[in-house]
Amino acid sequence: QVVLLESGGGSVQVGGSLRLSCRDAGYRYVSSCMGWFRQAPGKEREKVARTNTDGSVTYADSVKGRFTISKDSAKSTLYLQMNSLKPEDSAMYYCAADTAHLTCSDYVDRYNIWGQGTQVTVSS
Hints:
By secondary structure, this protein is an all-beta fold. It contains no helices and eleven strands. The model has no long low-confidence stretch (mean pLDDT about 90).
């Protein structure tokens, strides 16, 4: 069973950095499709960054050049390094995995395994 546990959220000032971690506590880590999503109050959940089956990654336009997604398979952990944070980055961040499809997608509904979320707050 895949169990995703996020950590690393917190409160930072504009321009600061945070690194989020997502550990597969079930130690299965079999999905090539994993991603970070975020949801701000009153807004829909949106993709931040995700992996592809060929090892490449994709980012939302709003975070390109500032955020980096990576994974350490040996540690069963997915990371999101967030630099140059802005107030509009404030949201609950979720790690997710799609274990049901052969190709990866940006669509939230395709992801069937979700972590509990970690809050990121950026203040000016």
